[in-house]
Amino acid sequence: MPDAMRATASAAEIAEAVATGKVGAARVVEATLRRIGERDKTLNAFTAVTGERAMARARTIDAERAAGRRLGVLAGVPFAAKNLFDVAGLSTLAGSKINRDRPPAAADATLVKRLESAGGVLVGTLNMGEYAYDFTGENAHFGPSRNPHDVTRMTGGSSGGCGGAVAGGLVPLALGSDTNGSIRVPSSFCGLFGLKPTYGRLSRAGTFPFVASLDHVGPLARSARDLALAYDVMQGHDPDDPVCMRRAAEPTLERLQQGIAGLRVAVACGHFKRGTAPEALAAVARVAQALEVTREIEIPEAARARAAAFVITASEGACLHLPRLRARACDFDPAVRDRLLAGAFLPAALVMKAQKFRRWYRAQVLELFQSVDAILAPATPCPAPRIGQQTMQLEGVEVPLRPNIGIFTQPLSFVGLPVVAVPVPLSPLPIGVQIVAAPWREDVALRIAHVLEESKAVAAPLPAE
Asked: Is 187 a catalytic residue?
């Protein structure tokens, strides 16, 4: 079998092999579809497989190469998208039972189009927590996504199918979304690299929303290079997304080799060290040691930022779903429904207070980046819990598991900072570390991730057989 057809082949390896004729795109996609058919019965990552579309696209790529045409940088690379991205011909589920009744999407989401324009091949849509209001990867309607490193464990959510599909070797690249941590949590639990870009950097056009003022979209992959490769082709202003900033694309792939000499890096303390399992502390220490970082920095009022994020999430989410709650309350996952109903009853004065605090907090955080270029923090307080687990230990107290998985991701999404999650391959389960950069400096976080990967301090572990 050519290397480009291995389950854990990178997007970069596949694209190079297809572009140079070492393997045809059709053979790569055939192998991918076969793996999905064999393994997804266990992992439950996919909700739809677009096999006919994928093979047609792959044959077109092979014909273009045979005709001597230049191929895109993702030529023949299979990818899948969280099922809140529009895919022409499929109903956009957003993990819900109710959305099954929606008419099929007439066109692909902007980022799906951009990946395919660069040569990528969409092979299907991925399982997720209902309406993205989830940190576990468990779905009441489609079943839980399962962690490829231990199928009794959570993938994390809400981009749970993304985590399972990439970590399980079904696809090298997945499109996810991140409102409060939904890319970084699956990256941590499944041992992957994930990018939550600056708020407004990548277009959300053609995606089903959750919390408009917090929603981000981005890739998950097995390497920092693959993240940069996908991120670069997805950049660019999109008038169909009102918050997509009118900024020139800033290629990051070519900057990975610049290294990190001169970059000022610190470790987050305070909130980001409290209630943390030994594995999470060990992961941050390993990354800090590899970078020779000893400085600590405190992000002021991070715990309050997390509380304000809860308020805004519940309020905006409830406002979006109020018609569905009135008409079809019984068709929601009860846990999601109850959180949305609670959000509907939040007093406006509390929401306004949270937004006012948000503006203050953003100013304080941006001030930190006058003295540092990046901050290290745990991605999750613990490795992947067992599916169905309801509680966890936090500072010696038994607390509900579901809301506390995002304890370290929420204070960063809250003000739209770019973050790369990197996997530390501890035994028996991996766990992630966040590399947080100033707004619009995804390149800084990706460069640090690449250096860590080159030094073997971080790596995406192979899935369990």
From this structure: no
